[in-house]
Amino acid sequence: MSEMTxxxxxxxxxxxxxxxxxxxxxxxxxxxxxxxMAGQYSDLQAEFGADRIVDTPISESTIMGAAVGAALAGxxxxxxxxxxxFAMCAVDELVNQAAKxxxxxxxxxxxxxxxxxxxxxxxxxxxxxxxxxxxxxTHVPGLVVVTPGTPAENRxxxxxxxxxxxxxxxxxxxxxxxxxxxxxxxxxxxIPLGVARTVRDGRDITIVSWAAQVGVAAEAAEALASxxxxxxxxxxxxxxxxxxxxxxxxxxxxxxxxxxHEAVRVGGFGGEIAAEVAEELGVPVARLGGERIxxxxxxxxxEAYKIKADRIAARVREMPA
Amino acid sequence: MTSxxxxxxxxxxxxxxxxxxxxxxxxxxxxxxxxxxxxGSVHQYIGEESIAVGICENLRDDDYLTSNHxxxxxxxxxxxxxxxxxxxxxxxxxxxxxxxxxxMHIADFSVGMLGANGVIADGCTISVGAAQAVKLLGQDxxxxxxxxxxxxxxxxxxxxxxxxxxxELPVLFVCENNQIAATTTTRLVTxxxxxxxxxxxxxxxxxxxxxxxxxxxxxxxxxxxSEIRNGSGPQLIQAMTYRLRxxxxxxxxxxxxxxxxxxxxEHEPIRRTEAWLCENGLSQDELDAMRAEVxxxxxxxxxxxxxxxxxxxxxxxTDVQDVGAPNMPGAIS
Lengths: 321, 333
Prior knowledge:
The complex is a heterodimer. By secondary structure, chain A is of the alpha/beta class. Chain A folds into two domains: 182 residues, Rossmann fold, CATH 3.40.50; 122 residues, Rossmann fold. Chain A has 13 helices and 14 strands. In chain A, the strands form three sheets. In chain A, strands 3-2-4-5-7-6-12 form a seven-stranded mixed sheet, with helices on both faces. In chain A, strands 9-11-10-13-14 form a five-stranded mixed sheet, sandwiched between helices. A five-stranded parallel sheet of chain B has the order 1-2-3-7-6, with helices on both faces. At the A-B interface, helix 3, helix 5 and helix 6 of A face helix 5 and helix 6 of B.
């Protein structure tokens, strides 16, 4: 076991996959000298060369489109978009091409690519560098959507995403880059896609979340515990496909569900989970998500957007028992 | 430019036959559209056949091709099975995608045909990526991207030109300049001198040719493809042509100048190539026999398509994805 950051763990996962499979390569802006926004590619160009860690022009459409072409032609590219906000320049290539090629071509094609596009508030980078649009991609047939929450997950899920034959939208949370955690370097196994992790066991309510919001939910659970409310926390890890079995089994036991996400509540993926649970189990459900505003810049404004632990705890107290 | 092709009448005849297959296929597609058997949009390639055939005759089976919405000609020229294509237009089992894609999503990966495309210029970025894969895998394939004159005003085209040159990729961009973008005259919405100049500004060598002249297309393609295979980096061919029909089958092209389409018939590739063959040893009887044979062949595909089975509705739910695949309606999730 060793302690490493979320970014270092992702770098390790990529390095392991690139050593294992010569058809794995990455393309994006500033991967060489800079080593990626958080060092998640640092020194990999020295090891694998400029043909496998490719510094590209600022051409998001082509970063994504080239990854589609390269995947159709027998390689496993990782398209690094730096910010999910920038990836919006390439939604066409992802949604119209990557997601649908296999289907449109009647199963002749596979598009084994990873579209890596970090989400979330890092602090002070405002409305075009802080969004959490993960729900958009859950709506698109053909895509897998992954939101790793810990260093170990960012290694294991990235490995699974690279090995997956479907296009995977891989959304690291920028607020987690420097967070440290235990990673077992001697265990090179992947973490399966579509499997949630129960972070904390509880009896009275199930709180489902993902990415950086999981830690906030865990804080809320701690506060609730001191009041005698036992909250079970589930980190979904993969949004599509989301782990229905784990969530349904948990809510069947606790009898209530709260979904919490940093993304805007309106049209957020929390609505989907809440609706599915309500339809299947008929229990009280609730959602917490960001107000429908752009992410602001100034500290008090940005803080006002965030869903803090006290709001989560308060929402739980309001819910019918 | 005259190629060696003029010394090879048998090869000209074979290429002409392929052009005829495309023309006849497209006419049948249009007829069956109006008869209600083919749904959606049918973008016919009528009048541009010499470009697809002249380019693709110089490719290997394992070279890649990306196409656009007007892709039937490219697909047939690259070696896709026109019977399977016709079944696809009809939405039937046995179509290139068993009815999942239709006219704008025909592909045949067994002959390197990486797909037609419903989004203008998206084939450009797919092509440069396929070329990067080719390099990474140490292969000597090349990638050909067919784009229209309307596509050159999309960002991905210009991004891909830059990209192809930066990484010196084995890509041939072929711009079929039929001078009209859907229903809008391209020069009215295009600044500057157009595609060749744009390519040259990225140091991508560009040549403009008469795309309706099979000999010129073949000769240019032979030279350029050989140069690209030998490491020249990307190049571009602008093939001037004329779309004899509307944007799609149900467009009557009322925006044309009076007499414009009639005048264009004089330069259209089937007529020109046929005239050359007549002057170079092929008798009218032989030509008529070839025409009858092709007509019967395509009519047979139409019959097959009429009689082929519809896909079972359950097929709507397959080949979406492995992880998180959809459930059949009614299935317990």
